[in-house]
Amino acid sequence: MRKSHPIRRVVLATAATVSGVVLLLSLKPSSDPASASAAGAAPSAAAAGQESPQGGTGAAGSSTVDGAATQTQYGVVQVRLTVAGGKITQAQAIQAPKGGTSDQKTALSVPQLNKETVAAQSANIDSVSGATYTSTGYKQSLQSALDKLKAASASSSAGSSAGSSAGSSSSSGSAQAQAKTVTGQVAQTQYGPVQVRITVSGGKITKAEAVQAPKGGTSDQKTALSVPKLNQEAVAAGSANIDSVSGATYTSTGYKQSLQSALDQAGG
Predict the structure, then answer these.
(1) DSSP designation for 125
(2) pTM value?
């Protein structure tokens, strides 16, 4: 049996030691600061992305507009609308007849008229039985508020198109913005109230209509005969200096009085 050489034993022992160190190093978990930092940053970035604010776009903008105060036989009626997303979300009467039996009629009619307005999204609603004057005044003020909303929408659309169009589009938007609708005061006649609404643009009457006129019996015939003619004459004359319609003197007189009131409100 041969003896091992001492040098050979030293070489083998050294090789075994090196192998053991290499094995230990391979099993030790990585503690690289850079990799640990990167691993911790990823969840933070993801969380930051999820916390982006949404309130500015999620909440729909709403606006409020008041209609013209309408004078009725028993008091003033005025309607306020709240609109969001192009729809009426709330309607309320901020003025309504008060005192005596008017309190009962207002309490009976106004909640129903508010509800019908939101449902119909227009002034085409039914009058409440037993509260005709309040209902009529409500619808007139409601129409006035709707006209304001329509004019504001048209002006906004014109302004948006002007930003990407030529100067001619801008002048068109300006012309639309100048148009306004005015409702004259109620003129009481022997046969019933008369009230005129006009649309004015560029200092001229572009449209005239009677939102109230005598009704019932022969009054229906006289109203149908006189009002279209009076509307036409108002636009043609651009003033309240128009002729009365033969056979409908009271209606014509009331029409001209309410027309003059509307012109005064529009600035002449």
Answers:
(1) -
(2) 0.42
